[in-house]
Amino acid sequence: MNYLIGYKDADKNFGHEDPMLNEFTYGESGGNTVNLLKVNKGDYLFFHKTIFNKRYITAYYVVEEVMFVSDAKKNQLISNKYDNPHLKKDIGKLTENECIAFGNPIFSKVLQVPLEITPDLLSKLSKPANLNPCQSLLAAISSSLRTWKELNSADIDYLLDLIKINEQKGRLTENILSSEEVFQLLERDIEKYIANNPSILDPNYILVKSQHIFSDESRLDLLLKNEKNDEYIVVEIKKGPIDRNALKQIKHYMKLCEKELNYHTVKGILVGNGISPSFEDEIISAEKDGITVRNYGWRFALS
């Protein structure tokens, strides 16, 4: 049995954190114990919650084992390792059939980019959801997923494919982000966006490599190529302002591109949200070495 399961953040659930995604555990003490006890090794549990007025899948477990909490508490190795609140309850306070699922730590995953649950996604599952047209979209989706949704093997393949595509795209797309979502963006989101859209830096740029590791184990963000003149461009991305360390990094990567990859003409672009104070002169001086700075920002839009 595979399920799509909703949950709340601990601060909205009286401090009760479950699932505990950092340790891939999930406990049940109510009516859903019947469902969880049907789950076998290798089955999938997908977890979803509300983030900024949308519903997202945030993680999935490939289940290793489901146990009664009373039995799990007797195992000292489990008690010492896991912090799930169900395992911390006194034996006398456990409900009948209270149980806990353990996800395989190798195959289970907390998503870097949560997958939005849309009407289109729900319509393509083996048991499509009936959305109430009289409710707001979020309320309709949340209502349709209030009970655990069973998934078959085709559903699992479909969701895993969507997750892979979604994480490759990153959080920066053509969709309008809320202010809260902008603050959640990471360097890798900006990196993925540029990797998918290198022409944003220059119409002649194409992607050559991303996250390339050199012999000294240093790792560059992106390597682009100018199709017009065969120049190679190292791109180093910072979520914050450009500083002396960033300049030092990109110079190092440029030298390694020449030495290890045998590129004759290598330039550099530092991408950040500005330049650190008192650092402007060094940036101007770096232009003679083929290094420039590109600043990113956010465009105001109404949806």
Characterise the protein shown here.
- GO terms for molecular function: DNA binding; endonuclease activity.
- It holds the Pfam family NucS_C.
- Keywords: DNA-binding.
- The two termini are 39 Å apart.
- The mean pLDDT is 93.
- The chain has two domains: 2-169, ph1033 like domains (ph1033 like fold, Roll), CATH 3.10.590.10; 181-295, Trna Endonuclease, Chain: A, domain 1.
- 30% of the residues lie in helices and 25% in strands.
- The protein contains eleven helices and twelve strands.
- A hairpin with a 2-residue loop joins strand 3 and strand 4.
- The protein is α+β, with helices and mostly antiparallel strands.
- The strands form two sheets. Strands 1, 2, 3, 4, 5, 6 and 7 form a seven-stranded mixed beta sheet that branches.
- The radius of gyration is 24 Å and the shape is elongated.
In short:
With 303 residues, the protein is an alpha+beta fold. The chain has helices at 33-36, 69-74, 76-81, 85-88, 119-123, 137-144, 153-169, 179-184, 187-196, 244-260, 280-286; strands spanning 2-6, 25-28, 44-51, 54-68, 99-103, 109-116, 149-151, 205-210, 222-226, 232-237, 266-272, 291-295. Helices cover 30% and strands 25% of the residues.
Instruction: Please provide the ordered H/E string of secondary-structure elements.
Output: EEHEEHHHEEHHEHHHEEEHEHE
Mean pLDDT: 93
Ends distance: 39 Å
- Count of separate structural domains: 2
Q: How much helical structure, as a percent, in the residues? A: 25-40%
Structural class: alpha+beta
Number of strands: 12
Shape: elongated
Which second-level CATH architecture of the largest domain applies? Roll
CATH level-3 fold name of the largest domain? ph1033 like fold
Which spans of ≥5 residues are poorly predicted at pLDDT below 50?
none
Name the CATH superfamily classification of the largest domain.
ph1033 like domains
- The portion of residues forming beta strands comes to 25-35%
- Main sheet overview: 7 strands, mixed
- In DSSP terms (H or I, runs of 4 or more residues), the helix count works out at 11
Pfam families: NucS_C (PF01939)
GO molecular function: DNA binding; endonuclease activity
Keywords: DNA-binding
